Amino acid sequence: MVTPIDPTALGFLLAENRTQPMHVGGLQLFKKPEGAGRSYVREMYEEMRSHDSTDEVAPLFLKHPTRSLRTAGQYVWEPDELFDIDHHVRHSALPKPGRVRELLDLVSRLHGTRLARERPLWEAHLIEGLRDGRVAFYTKTHHALVDGVSAMRLLATAMSSDPDQRGMPAMWAARPRSGRSSAVVDPVTLSDLPLQVVRGALAISAEAAGMPTALVTTLRRGLNNETSSLSLFAPRTIFNQPITGSRRFAAQDWPLERLRTIGKATGTTINDVVLAMCSGALRAYLLELDALPDTGLVAMVPIGLQAKQSHIASAEGGNAVGSVMVQMATELPDPRDRLSAIHASMRDGKQALASMTPVQIQAVSALGQAPAILPSLLRMQGIMRPPYNVIISNVPGSRTTQYFNGARLEGIYPLSIPINGMALNITCTSYDDKMCFGLTGCRRTVPHLQRLLGHLDDEVTALERAAGVG
Amino acid sequence: MVTPIDPTALGFLLAENRTQPMHVGGLQLFKKPEGAGRSYVREMYEEMRSHDSTDEVAPLFLKHPTRSLRTAGQYVWEPDELFDIDHHVRHSALPKPGRVRELLDLVSRLHGTRLARERPLWEAHLIEGLRDGRVAFYTKTHHALVDGVSAMRLLATAMSSDPDQRGMPAMWAARPRSGRSSAVVDPVTLSDLPLQVVRGALAISAEAAGMPTALVTTLRRGLNNETSSLSLFAPRTIFNQPITGSRRFAAQDWPLERLRTIGKATGTTINDVVLAMCSGALRAYLLELDALPDTGLVAMVPIGLQAKQSHIASAEGGNAVGSVMVQMATELPDPRDRLSAIHASMRDGKQALASMTPVQIQAVSALGQAPAILPSLLRMQGIMRPPYNVIISNVPGSRTTQYFNGARLEGIYPLSIPINGMALNITCTSYDDKMCFGLTGCRRTVPHLQRLLGHLDDEVTALERAAGVG
Asked: What separation in angstroms does the CA of A198 have from each of A116, A147, A384, B188?
């Protein structure tokens, strides 16, 4: 059965090319359950790939885009009649010594290759060989199927807060509507997701993408009339260049409690602290490369909106997402000053967003939801300066410990999409008692990406000291 | 320094697309030297990647194709100013249990991804985790740089027949002209290779590609006037379909002595026996799939030509390669009958080739050297039937045991290029006392490719029995 492709999804398919793969990813780290044998990972893998018939796989994970004379040259979704689970689910291993470094190397490489369009647009890699005995699981899903938030949610739906639950299917499994006891974020079943995700979360940008005139008008207004929520006065940085196809991924987590303590002592939010960590880290990183601009970097930060605030898409029950352009204050040498400036910029941005018209919100949202489409659009219209320097997302996750068939989830790190002109993406997700950071960059444009992890760590300490809690 | 791209190399760049990557590969298996420690592979990897400055890498491995306004939109070779050895040389591992099956799975995947054009067109993967303790080394080089024969020769130049030699650089290292003691096939130094390879071996097809009219005329003649050297009456098979981008690779070796014994007892050559193995295996494979055509399959078999025979390209001292279209006799049920028919077809083909004019040889050679360019050309000219069903190459290798820094080379298996309409490629190379087979196929178009290995093995036994030597 052929189904139409949503305009936004189509945008992601058309924007994709060799140097700009359009998939999001997630890296999960699991601790094996008590009594797991030597062949635990292989058994987990065999179990995962055993559900290989098309009626055992959810429709989202069975469809692939196709176009032909029959469809008048238009892309449509079509179920893969020759579905081959072995193409999608893969078993990998790390070379010795099996440190996190070797894991990040492998995941960087896996994230840098494109998904095959003649197949459903996803891959899942079960990875053994970490010397601490943990098991890694990297999943890769095309942005035409899910956005970053939905990808995290999809992973969450396959988890349970019950360590004793067994017989749990993988995230791509078809499930009955009832019988799921412990979905994390929302009790959605997988069969609901395609509709909710595509019609809900992405509907805003779908509409926005359909009205480039209104969008560009709003952006133009932003150029002439600086507001902190839609600032287009971002400096040029090394991040805002054409990119290559290879990727570098770095990931680490910090205790939520440390961030919360800093926030309490300074009257700021955890999200402000996350942004201040990024600001300090970006400043140190760019200083090392002698590439720090005189004016502060601007980050595009997607934020959730109340349905009544957004006026749109609420009927479908999806996520309404807006974006705030945050002045990152990277030009300020003092950590406390940066945190204060970010807090103020974020507050102003949210207020501005709240007072916006639906069309303006659409425009701002499109910046967040359709980063791949926007730059080309902006270039076409002769707007050459980057509207922002870096994308920083903070995706809420589960606050309780999660399990997959008894294996304890210890961390979950999002991988996102660098694009031409936006070579670095920082996405965090809270999980359990941690804030987990995932940094995805173009390997060539963002050299020594992993150094940012050290700088992030330094910045937590600096902020603690500045807040008088270190 | 910008250098022009040879027309044939350009053809391979232009013919490349997502489902049809244009690189050849080699899989080598090494036995660790006595006394190798636990971190032997890591040390080998660190040594390999330590030569990372551009003056330590041979020009062939430094250049990448580029085109711009400056070059009037034409592709040229340009040295990679930002050469990053870590992008090219990689350390991988196999999941447990670390059988050859896991190795072939990994290599299949690595061979299915495209090389990045913003980088020099090669990758090398050092692979640990085989349960028998051996070390695997997979290399991947774009067809625009080398053909299959040259790729095998390149690997050979990095080897030594002296088990005690140490301090040997990797194949991509720049070397002085003298001081190499033990090149295998020819005492060529690497710095000679680009010229020899591109101007020598590929010159024929370069010229042929430049004269499509003569080529197509010759092919048309073949259509109307069946000769065994240029038969265009190949049946349609499952191999002659559009392909996808994913690959399956299978490899195994058999003792040369077994093949030699069969040849002696039946008055045939080792090459005839190799083709008969393929014939029997293809027959059994297609029978299982209920897809064996009534008429016999036709294999395109590249053969080396004497310089005086080819009349061309000899001035440059390169390899002149012609092709014979061999009737594989897959319709015959008896192994001995198939071997006899192949022997006769091969003999006729060689004789016909010897009596051909240079232009005809050019045309036939182009079929072998430019398989990627030809099909499109044929389609353009309205010749829709496949000129042959499968490509089977037998590349001569070293007859003595080879070593790399004391590690004994136990086998070397070639990976080649499936293309649209030609989904299976079989390439063998003799090494030491073995005949090593590498089967590369489109994962979707050639299902259960690995079954061909079992059928090849059965066929050796069947041929031995038929020849009265089993």
From this structure: 21, 9, 30, 59
**pLDDT digit string (tens) for B376-408?**
555 544 455 667 889 898 888 888 999 999 999
Between CA B146 and CA B9 the distance in angstroms is 9
Annotated active-site residue in B125, B142, B143, B455: B143
Task: Enumerate the residues of chain B whose CB falls inside 8 A of the CB of residue A91.
Answer: 95, 102, 105
Cα A354 from Cα A199, distance rounded (Å): 23
CB B234 within 8 A of CB B389: yes
Q: Choosing among B39, B64, B246, which should be mutated to test the A contact, i.e. which has the most A CBs within 10 A? A: B246
Q: Are B314 and B350 in contact (CB under 8 A)?
A: no
**Residue with token string 């369009």:** A117
DSSP A19-64: TB--EEEEEEEEEPPTT--TTHHHHHHHHHHH--SGGGB-GGGTEE
Residues of A with Cβ-Cβ distance to B111 under 8 angstroms: none
Show the 3-state SS of B405-450: CCEEEEEEEEECCCECCECEEEEEEEECCEEEEEEEEECCCCCCCC
Provide φ and ψ at B371, rounded to 5°: -60, -25
A143 annotated active-site: yes
pLDDT tens for each residue of A189-228: 333 333 333 333 333 333 333 334 444 444 544 444 344 4
Subunit contact B443:A84, Cβ cutoff 8 A: yes
Out of B119, B128, B246, closest to residue A95 by CB: B128
Q: How is the beta sheet containing B76-79 ordered, strand by strand? A: B3-4, B76-79, B63-66
What the block records as the tokens of B400 is 């003595």
pTM of the model: 0.78
CA B119, CA A287: separation in Å to the nearest integer? 28
Task: For residue A96, give the nearest of B42, B116, B245 by CB distance.
Answer: B42
